[in-house]
Amino acid sequence: MTKQNEFRDVAQRALEHAVAWRTDGPKLPAIPPATRDQLRARFDIGLPEKGLAGTEVIEALVSAAQDGLATNTHSNFYSWVQGSSHPVGVAADILTSAWGQNAAIYQTAPAAAIAEEIAAKWLLELLHLPAECSLAFSTGATMASFICLSAARSEVLRQAGYDLEQNGLSGAPAVTVLLGDEAHATIFADLKYLGFGERNLVRIAVDDQGRMLAADLAKKLALVAGPKIVITQAGHINSGAFDPFPEIIAASKLAGAWVHVDGAFGLWARAVPTLAPMAAGLEAADSWTTDGHKWLQVPYDSGFAIVRHAEAHRRAMDVTASYLTKHADDGRNPSHFGPELSRRSRGFAVWAVLQALGRQGVQEMVARHCRCAQHLAQRLRDVAGIRVLNQVVLNQLAIAFGEESESAEIRAQLTASVIQAIREENLNFVLGANWRNQPILRISVISLYTDIPDMDILADSILRAWKAVRS
Length: 471
Ligand SMILES: *Cc1c(COP(=O)(O)O)cnc(C)c1O
Prior knowledge:
- Strand 8 (386-388) and strand 9 form a beta hairpin.
- The protein has helices spanning 3-24, 36-43, 54-65, 87-99, 110-126, 141-159, 164-167, 185-193, 214-223, 245-254, 310-317, 347-381, 408-425, 452-470, and strands at 134-138, 176-180, 201-204, 228-233, 258-262, 287-291, 303-307, 386-388, 396-401, 431-435, 438-444.
- By secondary structure, the chain is an alpha/beta fold.
- The strands form 2 sheets. A 7-stranded mixed beta sheet has the order 1-7-6-5-4-2-3, sandwiched between helices.
- Pyridoxal-5'-phosphate (PLP) is lined by residues 81, 140-142, 184, 186, 235, 237, 262, 264-265, 291, 303.
- The site of pyridoxal-5'-phosphate has 13 residues, from helix 6.
């Protein structure tokens, strides 16, 4: 076998399996059947002295992984906010791997750099954000917020007369971060990576939907001197709720703070005219995070860091070395905007998914998922003992079981038992979460093809589970 043929053979074999997974997937049980020990035994077949033939390796990989694959590419997956890897995005991703471009700089990967430039322009258009923003392609929202908050830290210090890149963090004026008490867990991780500890954070009170209280923010901003960053949220992980942006941003600007918006999935409301009012006003912020691999259905991994002040963005992230030839007329060099030098050319799949969905496709999908969430809420709302805890404004539902008159322990037990019973039916993939000191069944409607009939299957399963648990 020549080297040339080697790729054709393994690629064809892999593609056959990929197509089978996508076609058979919907018929598979929602929960992967393999146990941890089975998976270990299947993967741990020993490191061979001599390499094996490529097609043999692909066969071995498929048989090791098959029973341990989650079904988040299928429409019955409701746990976490996970997109389902749009077929066209996956196909573009296969090409991305085959082309093997390192997206560091224009000179070594020209098409990758320009694909990012154009996809970035389209993303800003879809999200109705200022065209002059710079945009980084990250692994996800966690790293996108890390990038945005790096730019924020550099800029608020610069405005306080301190050059962070020159002088470093020790000895810098204290920066205070103000954020909602129910900010996403990854925001707290980002702040830790950036050198902020609990004592540098001011937590702002939230209402029963997890929305930041603008009055509490205004009050606390007035008590803080020095450089400040305010972190808000478009799309609360449990309720889907949006912070009151106009009030928050007005108060923050008055206090000279940088405003960052974590809109990992919620930012996509801006692409849909009927939903956009909830996310109105956030265009006045300084930076925004959203995911490609959640609502946009880009294959993993894909996130976007969007920064109004391109200079601050670059100052915080740029990598310089003599061999990184960057010409003034190159346009975008991806490594100006993210923490990685060598990385996957993430722009190709984003470009392809945006082409495949189009503006209308994005609108239709996001609106449909929100309609699905409403439909499910409707099916459950009037059933005795089932409580939909959130106002269903987006695609998220937080559901608890048991009457309000029952003790917290009993309700917790009932909710856990219902989740267990739904999982035993194995028609839908669900998991629990905790919100406001109680266990919940959290449903995220986010898979590409999920529609009303899927909601009825899920609602029936929840109702059967509740009936069985209650009796
Ligand atoms: C999912 C999510 C994140 C983290 O995103 P990753 O893509 O998993 O890194 C951050 N914030 C919110 C609100 C999210 O829903």
